[in-house]
Amino acid sequence: MPLPTENLRPDAATAVPESRQRGLMTLLLVANASMYAVYMGVGSVLLPTQVEAIDAHRKVVLLGLIGGVSSEFATACNPVAGALSDRSGRRNPWVLGGALASLAGLTLLGSVRTALLVGIAWCLVQATMNVYQAAVTAIVPDRIPPSRRGTASALVGLALPVGGTLGVLIASRSADHLPAGYLALGLVTAAAAALLTALCRDVPRDGQGAAPAPAPSWRRRAAAFLSALSSRDFRWAFIGRALMVLGYFSVVGYQLYILDDHIALPKGLRAADAMAVLTPVSMAAMAVSTLVGGLLSDRWNRRKVFVGVSAALAGVVMVVPVVAPTWPGMLVFSTLNGLAFGCFMAVDTAVVTLVLPRAEDAARDLGVLNIANAGPQIVAPFVASAVVTGLGGYTPLFLFGGALSLLGALAILPIRGVR
Questions:
Q1: Per-residue model confidence as pLDDT tens digits over 31-75
Q2: 154 vs 349: CA distance, rounded Å
Q3: Which of 106, 137, 202, 211 reaches 20 to 30 Å from 163, CA-CA?
Q4: 288 class by beta-carbon count within 10 Å (0-12 exposed, 13-18 middle, 19+ buried)
Q5: Other CB atoms within 10 A of residue 323 CB
Q6: Where does the sequence pass through the membrane (predicted)?
């Protein structure tokens, strides 16, 4: 049986005055937006462009291999960094250190010219960005009371449309000058980290300054690390997130190639320029659904219906590019997909923070949950590449992504601790 969410000790979060909570949420929006600018700008435009320039004939396979291997580093580093920041009792050093290391990695990535070196450099960026992400993500359960989690998640959830749009616009404008694009995205993250750490001081956490406990064995560490999955509600939230993310990134990771090889674009419109149009459309829809979903879920004190319906919608809209592989079809798809994914991520994040087993292990357990974010991104490039090359194009890929999203909608039903 899951531990009751009342054991999350919300008093630590409510100690922060409401005015400071609003300022903190603004800083978190900026910090998370910079992170998504890197993920979307590099993953959607710069990396596919770089891979295609290296080997156009094997671009699908190479992108799948590089994306899959690099995501393993993300999966490994996120929960480990979260556990270390829990143990240190501080977030800011991990935020700033991860951002500066990512700046160095992105600068390296923009300078390499072989598939092997691109893969190595992107692995380094994924690892360091997940150090940054683990610490930033843990600030919400550290500082925001449960009654404000839906609103906080909605505001922080705006980071995806804001950051994603910024990242893709920067990347699309610099697609012919890759080093400049990589450097610009790295500087955005470094500046956001400097702003957050300068204006948001670390709050002392329980046990900070006490004598360190004897180091447990690796077996005990692994058991403690995965202990959150013994909570029934947390486990189903993990499964639902993993399915939704896998379905989403199986398609989004190949969108540049989809526009090149599957969609009938208007004459004179390049795939990179089409991305610069589709991304703001999708992200604007995502911003609307993020705000509306998060705020209404707080007002009605209902989370599951928002998560389930948005995941189901994400599955259904995957049919649009199948029946209408045209530019108008992609505009419709991007709008509806943005609405669905934005609402899902905003409200599902609130669900997760409400089913965390223990507040003192928040960063570690959120790191476990981030396996559901990063883990499917390991599988997605490999599987998507196999689907495209083995089943004859991008139509099976859309159907595959849609089926996974529908399964993610069903996974929310068994959660009992959240309405």
A1: 999 999 999 999 889 999 999 999 998 998 999 889 888 877 777
A2: 9
A3: 202
A4: middle
A5: 10
A6: 27-48, 60-81, 152-172, 178-199, 238-257, 277-296, 305-324, 330-356, 368-391, 397-415
